[in-house]
Design brief:
Rossmann fold, binds uridine-5'-diphosphate, alpha/beta
Length: 323
């Protein structure tokens, strides 16, 4: 059996990647401390409980399963918290990854697909954003991911590590078969919050700023379906077997939707009125973030299939209303 170690395999994107791995004929071995991940989300392979900072446990799991590659999701992802408590982010995300890479070297695992983010670009001068755009993260979360990308490049030169970083734009939606979905606690992301209002679980959603230089004044983001993201990890991992890949690829659709458009679309999809209130800007939010995904398409042969925002919201709604 071709084992692949998936750190953070019980999390939102990690669990969707496990499903995609199983479908492609691999056995996903989830390594997760279940601090934010969910045991119910591990359905396509074994769950090995453990912390990313626990080098001995990581070594044990690598020795037991001898994976051909690692897909590394385990990380803290709350931007605001990273500003308040950067030590937590550098320790878990950066030091945790260094420990993982050491364990991989000890056990002869040479391939890693790394879950990165468009937060490495900070506030871009030009949108859509190409991979060659300057990296100026503006918060410790984005900085921790960018530092890891640098580490991966240096380990490649020095130790022959084969790696690729995937910079996600706004991951959204849920497994179209309804087997998995987004379940963060606390929830901070726009689409699940909007759907909670539709469901009656929250009274309203706050729009963070209506005075941006965008068509309707609200922030524009590039929402990309989580199952499309999952597929990109398999392609990237397979790409590491053969031809030379770039160090990083953007994963987005290249199309933007404003906060107001997302709310309006969610009203159409759910058939319910969604109460929205006006709030101040959220610190550190750029007006517009859009991917230029051409390299992922041409070099990873990635074809996102669920690019319509209505489709993304519809899969998320099917999941969320059933929770
Ligand atoms: N947003 C909002 N209200 C909320 C949550 C998010 O207006 O309660 C906006 C946020 O300012 C951003 C967009 O929705 O422009 C997407 O935010 P999210 O937190 O989902 O993802 P991010 O862009 O931070 O990765």
């Amino acid at each position: 059996m071709n084992n692949v170690l998936v750190t953070g395999g019980a999390g939102y994107i990690g669990s969707h990647a496990c499903k995609a791995l199983a479908r492609a004929g691999y056995r996903p071995v989830s390594y997760d401390n279940l601090a934010y991940g969910h045991e119910w989300a591990v359905k396509w392979g074994p769950l090995e409980k453990g912390d990313i900072l626990d080098a001995a446990r990581l070594g044990e799991v690598l020795a037991a399963y001898k994976p051909s590659a690692v897909i590394h999701f385990a990380a803290f992802i709350d931007v605001g918290e990273s500003v308040r408590d950067p030590a937590k982010y550098y320790r878990n995300n950066l030091a945790g990854t260094l420990g993982l890479l050491d364990a991989m070297r000890r056990h002869g695992v040479e391939k890693i697909v790394f879950s990165s983010t468009c937060a490495t670009y900070g506030i871009p001068d030009i949108v859509p954003i190409a991979e060659s755009a300057p990296q100026h993260p503006i918060n410790p979360y984005g900085a921790s991911k960018w530092m890891i990308e640098r580490v991966l490049a240096d380990y490649g030169h020095a130790y022959g590590l084969r790696s690729v970083a995937l910079r996600y734009f706004n991951a959204a939606g849920a497994d179209p078969d309804g087997e998995l979905g987004e379940d963060h606690d606390p929830e901070t992301h726009l689409i699940p919050l909007v759907l909670d209002v539709a469901k009656g679980a929250r009274p309203n959603v706050t729009i963070f700023g209506e005075d941006y230089a965008t068509q309707d004044g609200t922030c524009v983001r590039d929402y990309v379906h989580v199952s499309d993201l999952a597929d990109a990890h398999i392609l990237a991992m397979q790409g590491l077997e053969g031809h030379e890949l770039r160090s990083a690829y953007n994963l987005g659709t290249g199309e933007g939707h404003s906060v107001a458009q997302v709310i309006a679309c969610a009203e159409r999809v759910t058939g319910r009125k969604i109460a929205a209130t006006r709030g101040p800007r959220r610190p550190g939010d750029p007006a517009t973030l859009l991917a230029d995904p051409s390299l992922a398409k041409s070099e990873l042969h990635w074809t996102p299939r669920r690019t319509a925002i209505s489709d993304i919201i519809e899969t998320a709604w099917r999941w969320r209303r059933g929770r």
